[in-house]
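Two records follow; treat each independently.
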Amino acid sequence: MLDYIIIGGGSAGCVLAARLTEDPNVQVALIEAGPVDKNVLIHCPAGLALLAKNGQGNWKLNTVPQPGLNGRSGYQPRGKVLGGSSSINAMVYIRGHRNDYDHWAAEGNAGWGYDDVLPYFKKSEHNERGADEWHGTGGPLNVMDLRSPTRFGPMFAQAGHQAGFALNPDFNGADQEGVGVYQVTHKNGERYSAAKAYLTPNLTRPNLHVITDAHTTRILLERKRAVGVEYHQGGELKQLKAAREVILSAGAFQSPQLLMLSGIGAKELLMHAGVGLQHELPGVGQNLHDHPDVVIGVNAPHLKDLFGMSPIGMARAIKGIFEWRNHRSGMLTTNFAEAGGFIKSSPEEAIPDLQLHFVIGKLVDHGRKTTFGHGHSTHICVLRPKSRGSVQLASKDPFEAPLIDPNFLGDLDDMQRMIRGFKLVRQIIRQPALADLGGKEMAASAKAHTDLEIEHFIRDHADTIYHPVGTCRMGNGPMDVVDAQLKVRGIDGLRVIDASIMPRVVGGNTNAPVIMIAEKAADMIKAGQ
């Protein structure tokens, strides 16, 4: 008999599988809907560009039409492979602001303040810069500076400094604010996903059972207790039972979907989808929010060392293939988003409310559309959006994607911050460090000058920066789904451990925080909490 079943082989699931099986007397099954992470495009950092185009290892989800985006449906790529989204993301290592975690604790989640979670960030980390007050060494997750960075990341940082922002050598140190280059989850020139960090080194453990290409359809309940899972694999419907706990780590979209498919959620919504109620928990699927993001692109056809489609660009890429294959070095070790920053949209802000990602290529439609020529792109995202949406069942069919409604830019405050951020980024790209390189702002944004014109551009082009959270919110209120130990309220033997438990999204990329959440949760489980 298994002790624990973990649903979802993404960032949280990989951490939990590794940590729980440290006890040889514990039997753990990890169920992942996607395949093993053997695709070379996963391991070669620059392969993420082709992953975006071909959709491999990706659920390729979409939102319902968004009024705030002029009725457009947004794209929601999520990892469907061992490692989850850490196998297809841009590998930026960011934790968020200390105030984010103190805010969680202040909302009634004891043990989740910054001083509580910092030890788990450090425990998870092996930072090649070395250990200090803020960073750890010896942890599973390798964090490093880019092996073969381009010249453009430091140029962006210098342009930001010329625009009046502080240079920051470590966004995860004493102070988040400023501009600089990002550290990445790489090792020896390869992507270092949660699967490579936590799962792959431990696959030989006899008490770890990894089941791939297995689509979980529901959680098995007996008298308000989770006792196992049902899943499809190879055309067969199968079941597994767990003596201790079922752990749901399927992410901000599929964790609430699976709860609802199992009869846990709001009664009226379940009835509408044709699912029988097992336990009423109205907050399941609510509180969905995400970082809205818009991109300003610059055409720079003469800068051939930027990524781009051209004869010279293709020749450089072919050379890069051999450099990476033979030495794990060269241009294909890039994560594209080499630099960025955390800035305030206005001086009145207490902490940064905007994040910037500087990309060494022209980015259109999440990289799914091929753009010819060379250039660079700067993302602007609102870090603590006020807009809230939901995830709901489209039907009781477990193979049908859920209805995803982030309600992007539904709150006017989010738009106002993004407009201010748009203006600040335009100031940055016009500073000498970038402007002297030449280049011209792409036509779609270049024609936006007034606030109204900028707003129109944003509504026509904004979308996610891939950080959905909140749909199984942690707290002690009537719309909260899990408690501070991440146990589902009213159901024994069931926890949710992933980004869906965040009461409010952190101010930054969410992969490192999810790994931290799983590290902390593993200790709670081991301690019997």
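The next record belongs to a different protein.
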Amino acid sequence: MTKRYDAVIIGAGHNGLVCAFYLAQAGLNVRIVERRDVVGGAAVTEEFHPGFRNSVASYTVSLLQPKVIADMRLHDHGYRVIERPISNFLPQEDGGYLKLGGGLERAQAEFRRFSEADAEALPAYYDALEGVAEVLRSLALKSPPNIGEGLRTLVAGASQGWGLSRLSLEAKRDVLDLFTKSARSFLDSWFESEAVKAAFGFDSVVGNYASPDTPGSAYVLLHHVFGEVNGKKGAWGHSVGGMGTITQIMADVCRQCGVEISLESPVDEVLIDGDTVAGVRLASGEEIATKRVIANVGPKLLYDTMLPKSAQPEDFQRRMRGFKAGGGTFRMNVALSELPRFTCLPEPGEHHQSGIIIAPTLDYMDRAYLDAKQHGWSKAPIVEMLIPSTVDDSLAPPGQHVASLFCQQFAPELPDARDWDEEEDAAADTIIDTVEAYAPGFKASILGRQVLSPKGLYRKFGLVGGDIMHGHMSLDQMWSARPVLGHGAYRGPVKGLYMCGAGTHPGGGVTGAPGHNCAREVIADGGSFSRFRAV
């Protein structure tokens, strides 16, 4: 070992970059080691067909913490997000469609085409979700109480529980419903139209290998309303230049702060000296000395492949074996000669700039999950399509387009010992056929495609089971129990080992919150670095 660093971060995804920024601001000498030849983790933009570029995995913006944006001064470096004119567009099986978003009055007018009662219920529904979401937003940049730390646990728990305790009885009932009920059960108590329930229920299965009938799936629905774009809560948007623009800007900011970023530097092992971290060993054989290793990889990847089993307590190992990861997602990018023409709304319009959701009912979503459990993927998959080239002409040649196809309910591991490498093209064809049924001519317009099965997402980005959340967002794997009770405050089972990825609180999405919070805990443990206390 030669040069010693105050901290080494494994993985240059957005949370690793955020964590590095705050540590460098506090005066620490930080090095990031990244397996791939580009920064960004799953938030990258790449050319996948000659002349066509797109966000490869993560594809849309809403959850990135405003505090992180402001502290890193991302706007000063070119960060720009274009809001969707409407949130989502859902073609229906009967030839109709539903548009969601564009403000309360417009959404109510749209709902009246399906149900007057649902239109009248909408304001109260929004208020109920926002009331709970506001409390949970306030917890996003706080470290969960680490169970087992005595008085400190009690104080932190009481402090963070204060917001929930101040809610009205009705709001507390909403909290209970959202954390325990299925999405269907929750939505059935609010709405009667199947199209309306599908419009909201879609969020409950995004990155969640489960049915909308699965208990706890209502929380995943809530997780997706936390965000904001340009100060508008609940809005979603497109990062100009793709998601890679965000992480490239973050990397530039980090380098300006003195952070060293090493690409093509995969980690083989976290080195331990006694009961304390001593550094990391790269696949090249290089050993980097440090007293602080911060893992911006999923818990499964960290504890199954990087940290020696001898350094993990037996009960911890058993708990991690039970940690559930595998989001059931399948990701495609396609180069298009023209915009898709939907049977229900064929001409170009605002729906092409929204999330195009092919999942017309909760029953459709449930069947997709059951198919995946039995056959590996659905005969009629859940598809979300975005066409970012409608608002960003840097991504495709003039008159042509790129589309992201983010698809749900694809088994992390195929049944009958089948291999995704042999099946992914057939699954991709099924996805395209599904879109074709709603937009005839779509298949013929495809000039090229990039296909990433759950296995492909693991191989390219280290997402175990294709899990974009680094682990299920279920009640038993949230807050102080993410990833394991007793290690919920970003600290691993070895002194000097930390976690800053989506497998920690508050979970998945391009938020920057785990990176921010982990940096605060590293500073707190260091004792002598004080500038971060004001952050």
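Discussion point: The chain has 16 helices and 22 strands. How would you locate this feature using only the token line?
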